């Protein structure tokens, strides 16, 4: 496309999309560090792939290998543990040194 055919809206939408692509990873890392998002499981992609292939009645060992399928089976054998997630307000309170008004205790004489 030539520069004259591109409108300002196209440039803005493209810039926002590209910025979102660039900053997705660092933003997710920051949210994990603040405790808003849980840490990703190391076998998360493998678990989804194994379940998907089994739903299609295919052998996941041929695609992913025996070691990955065994590790996924071991993880899926145990029940999921509840994950503590901070609320957005708690995460902001951790990052910013501001106190929350409802938790201010007034000193009485």
Brief summary of the model shown:
The protein has helices spanning 8-34, 44-55, 60-64, 66-77, 88-95.
Folded structure, characterized:
This protein is mostly helical and 109 residues long. Helices cover 59% and strands 0% of the residues. The protein has two domains: 1-37 and 83-109, no CATH class; 39-82, no CATH class. The chain is built from five helices and no strands. The longest helix has 27 residues, at 8-34. The N and C termini lie far apart (74 Å). The mean pLDDT is 82.
Distance between the termini: 74 Å
Q: Bin the strand percentage.
A: under 5%
Mean pLDDT: 82
Whole-angstrom Rg = 23 Å
How many domains make up the 3D coordinates? Answer: 2
How would you classify the helix and strand content by structural class? mainly alpha
Give a count of the beta strands, DSSP E runs of length 2 or more: 0
Note the main sheet.
Answer: none
Q: With helices defined by DSSP (H or I, 4 residues minimum), what is the helix count?
A: 5
- Would you list the SSEs in sequence order as H and E? HHHHH
Could you estimate the helical fraction of the residues in percent? Answer: 55-70%
Low-confidence stretches: none
The coarse silhouette is: flat
Topology (elements, then pairings):
Layout: H1 8-34, H2 44-55, H3 60-64, H4 66-77, H5 88-95
Kindly list the characteristics that best describe this protein:
109 residues, mainly alpha, 2 domains, 5 helices, flat
